Amino acid sequence: MSFVNCQGIIIIFMLTLGVGFCTSCNCTRVNRHLYLNCVQTNESEIHDCFIKNEGAIYVFVTNSSLTRIPKSIRYLHRVQYLDFSYNEITDIDNHTLNSLRSELQILVLSYNNVSILRNNTLDNLTSLQELYLDNNGLREIEANAINSNLKSLHYIQCSYNQLEILDIGLVWVPLLFNYTVNVSNNDISNFTNQKGIRVSDFKKFNDSLRVDLQSNNLTTIDANYLLRLGKVEQIWDLHNTGIGGINILFNHLVCDCVLFPFAVYINVFKFMDDLNPVYNMRCGYPTELRSIPISEVSINEFNCSVPENCPDHCLCTRTIAFDLITVVCDSDTLDTIPYVLPEGRYINLSVHSSNVRELSNRLYYQNVTNLDLSNSSISTVQADFLPNFERIGTIQIYDNALTMLPEDIQNMNLEKLSSLYLHGNPFQCDCHTHWLKAWLLKNKAKVPDLDQVLCESGPARGKPIIDALDSEFVCVGINLVLVLAISFGLLSVLVILVFTAYLFRVSIKVLLIANFKCFQCLRRKVSTDLPFDIFISYSSCDDTYVHDMLIPHLENDGFRLFTQDNFIPGIPITDNILKGIDSSFTTLIILSNKFLESDWCRYEFEQAYVKVLQEKERHLIILTLDKKLNKERIPKTLKTYMKMTNYINVSEKRYMSRLLLALPRIQIRIGDSERTPLLNDSAKVN
Ligand SMILES: *[C@@H]1O[C@H](CO)[C@@H](O)[C@H](O)[C@H]1NC(C)=O
Ligand SMILES: *[C@@H]1O[C@H](CO)[C@@H](O)[C@H](O)[C@H]1NC(C)=O
Ligand SMILES: *[C@@H]1O[C@H](CO)[C@@H](O)[C@H](O)[C@H]1NC(C)=O
Ligand SMILES: *[C@@H]1O[C@H](CO)[C@@H](O)[C@H](O)[C@H]1NC(C)=O
Ligand SMILES: *[C@@H]1O[C@H](CO)[C@@H](O)[C@H](O)[C@H]1NC(C)=O
Ligand SMILES: *[C@@H]1O[C@H](CO)[C@@H](O)[C@H](O)[C@H]1NC(C)=O
Ligand SMILES: *[C@@H]1O[C@H](CO)[C@@H](O)[C@H](O)[C@H]1NC(C)=O
Ligand SMILES: *[C@@H]1O[C@H](CO)[C@@H](O)[C@H](O)[C@H]1NC(C)=O
Ligand SMILES: *[C@@H]1O[C@H](CO)[C@@H](O)[C@H](O)[C@H]1NC(C)=O
Ligand SMILES: *[C@@H]1O[C@H](CO)[C@@H](O)[C@H](O)[C@H]1NC(C)=O
Ligand SMILES: *[C@@H]1O[C@H](CO)[C@@H](O)[C@H](O)[C@H]1NC(C)=O
Ligand SMILES: *[C@@H]1O[C@H](CO)[C@@H](O)[C@H](O)[C@H]1NC(C)=O
Predict the structure, then answer these.
(1) How far is the CA of 97 from the centre of ligand 5 (A)?
(2) Which parts of the sequence belong to the TIR domain (predicted)?
(3) Residue ID of nearest Cα to ligand 7 atom 7
């Protein structure tokens, strides 16, 4: 083969130059271009070729079986474009390239076998603009391989390699802007920050930084980890770092609880840069979410399974957005309700087809919202079963073996309970259960299957309990009907009293608040040692109004504001909101239809109001931006709150004055320096 080529070369050289000797390299110069092509690498021929053509500007040494970059390139004094693609170069030592004069602008090493790019290998190439290292076996780019010596660099092509980790120091390089890093088609699954760079130090040059991470092995974007990694202190700083686009398509992202904080950020910031590919990423898993843009996934889909504390024969899932644990146990080997479940603010527990016979107290009941115990063997409900439910919504005990309920249930506050399903149980109807009829009638709104709750024994057998005649609840020998009737009468009176008092309480509140609009009496002065006066809870949907109108006004009045700008990155938005509420005297909630229509905005917000409404002593003010709010979308608790208090609408006359009036004067507890941000001269306001 080499002999044949040799002959060919000899013939051509004899014809063209009239010189006859056997070479393995073809060294051709065309004006400023130099083409060197070797059948077999011969360093001395390459050396000669470079020396003869030291003025060449575009140099191509391709398809020549080179295993390293020839040292003789140092003779190419004027080279600007150097192409070594399609060789077998495995290593780049730290001298060869650095010995080049600094005019080199483009270096092409595509289709070689380079496995590592070492620190400082390119340091002398101060004019290098583009570096092509695609289609190598690149496994590592050392953290200091690309550094600020490469002042002119604006494109690195590292596609089709085997990188598993991307050091963010490759992306954020001091002094470089308008810079693209292409690491698509690698195996990247995680990030490091070996040089300890601080991302916030990089200033914005409009859309000047692009990272192509397509087709890698990223399964999640752990936002909290990344913010910590890049030492990002203020979330908003990210928008000053000049990220024009991080293209992360075609990675199989798992849309689960780990991704959730990132999904929150996407939804908070998407509106700022709708076309940025990072905001248009899609889920890869789970299968039912595949290809759905993350921003369109409903917040209750970001679930994770929770193996810790999950009982045998059960499946436990956490829905991170609500801190909800869902436990499903479907097994006839289960003969008792689990004693321990994974912890969560809300717990849904389903135990079907089990051998559970008795219901009694469990510590976690306080957080249970839905309890499904249908289709089991329950025959006894202990008296301590019910009092522990603080967040209960639905209890399903249908299709079991209950003959009665504990009588104590009559004294319990079932306000929170929305539904209790009881059908399919063999209730006994006699003098001991007469109270049950009254109780069912009284609570008929809470027992949706009332008509199917039947008497299994006694004279009323087969009838719905509520339709059984009072005279049918008899025990042989003893008749307690009268006693029961009296107790029932007393109980009813009590219920009516409590109910009236409850109604009255609401009216009192409404009355008080409605009539105390007067200037002086509402101008409360409060003492506080909290670091902030007002926490503005608003959604990014209303960002413009808040930043342009509200904040300047309030700041002008001397209030110390806690807004999203004070959020600490690296901790969940929820925690940030709670921190805001905790460290501010007043929580000011900005409400709009845009806000109510977005799941995500509501999520941010609900985290806040749940706490505020729970802690009654908190000072809460609601400001609405739309004349008519879509009432259906206002969360229930909030609706009640809005009925009780006056909220302020921006379309009202002098709404800003009203708002300021509603805000108490703040006096900081430490020291004497009283601050009176409000209305020292009323003329000042609006
Ligand atoms: C050497 O390369 C040039 C350009 O690539 C080509 O035109 C020429 O025919 C080659 N010469 C030989 C002897 O192969
Ligand atoms: C390289 O080429 C030179 C001159 O063309 C020749 O003398 C030498 O033997 C060659 N070396 C190899 C290793 O082929
Ligand atoms: C290199 O050589 C192969 C055949 O050996 C050929 O297919 C390929 O096109 C060549 N590449 C370049 C850049 O010359
Ligand atoms: C170049 O690499 C050698 C080892 O391969 C090392 O000893 C030397 O310090 C390096 N020089 C620079 C400037 O990095
Ligand atoms: C890098 O450039 C400097 C100055 O231009 C020179 O002194 C040094 O020797 C070069 N480094 C190498 C490894 O050639
Ligand atoms: C590339 O280098 C690796 C070792 O780093 C070697 O195993 C492999 O055979 C090389 N591939 C080619 C095409 O030279
Ligand atoms: C490369 O540079 C980084 C950052 O300066 C350093 O942490 C690392 O140890 C260096 N690697 C080697 C092999 O010297
Ligand atoms: C950024 O670099 C690209 C080429 O990669 C160029 O087309 C563009 O004009 C540059 N933009 C700026 C602002 O320098
Ligand atoms: C990165 O490389 C891939 C594969 O070569 C290419 O399809 C993509 O367009 C490149 N991206 C950028 C931003 O240059
Ligand atoms: C991608 O990551 C998964 C685990 O995250 C790993 O099992 C798999 O081997 C990785 N694939 C490649 C090509 O590195
Ligand atoms: C990324 O690396 C960090 C630190 O080693 C680790 O804590 C984290 O779990 C990794 N993330 C993924 C998705 O592998
Ligand atoms: C119940 O919820 C609270 C938060 O509201 C949490 O602190 C507690 O650990 C939860 N308890 C259980 C048993 O899940």
Answers:
(1) 10
(2) 530-686
(3) 194
CA-to-CA distance for 627 and 621, rounded, in angstroms? 17
Strands 165-167 and 190-192, bridge-based pairing: parallel
Ligand 2 pocket: which of 10, 42, 46, 48 to mutate (most atoms <8 Å of CB)?
Answer: 42
Nearest ligand for residue 26 CA: 1
Which residue matches tokens 């693209």?
180
H-helix or E-strand spanning residue 426: none
Task: Give, in words, the CATH class of 523-668.
Answer: alpha beta
H/E stretch holding 59 reads strand 58-61
HEC profile of 414-440: CCCCCEEECCCCCEECCCCCHHHHHHH
Looking at the whole model, is its pTM more than 0.70? no
Asked if 22-162 and 523-668 have one fold, the answer is: no
286 preceded by a cis bond (ω within 30 of 0):
yes
Give Cβ neighbours of residue 403 (< 8 Å, ≥ 6 apart). Answer: 379, 425, 426, 427, 428, 456, 457
CATH topology of domain 22-162: 3.80.10
Kindly give the pairing relationship between strand 140-141 and strand 368-372: unpaired
Residue 499's pLDDT band (boundaries 50, 70, 90)? low
Mutate to test the pocket of ligand 11, among 190, 216, 254, 259 (most ligand atoms within 8 A of CB): 190
**CA 277 to the chain's CA centroid:** 17
Q: Is the CB of 99 under 6 A from ligand 4?
A: no
Looking at the CA of 96, name the nearest ligand: 5
- Ligand 7 geometric centre to CA of 156 (Å): 20
Backbone dihedral angles phi then psi of residue 639, each to the nearest 5 degrees: -60, -45
Q: Is the CB of 186 under 6 A from ligand 9?
A: no
Question: What type of residue is 450?
Answer: L
Beta bridge partners of 182: 157, 212
Question: In the chain, what are the domain boundaries?
Answer: 22-162, 306-426, 480-513, 523-668
Given a contact cutoff of 8 angstroms between Cβ atoms, the answer to whether 9 and 22 are in contact is yes
CB 436 within 8 A of CB 413: no
User: Which ligand approaches the C-alpha of residue 120 most closely?
Assistant: 4
Task: Name residue, tokens 């001991």.
Answer: 432
Between 255 and 484, name the one with better pLDDT: 255
pLDDT of 558-583, one tens digit each?
788 888 778 777 676 777 777 887 78
- Tell whether domain 306-426 is in CATH 3.80.10.10: yes
SS3 readout for 15-68:
HHCCCCCCCCEEEEEECCEEEEEECCCCHHHHHHHHHHCCCCCEEEECCCCCCE
Q: Is 220 in the pocket of ligand 11 (CB under 6 A)?
A: yes
- 429-445 mean pLDDT: 89
Q: If you ran DSSP here, which 8-state letter would residue 214 be given?
A: -
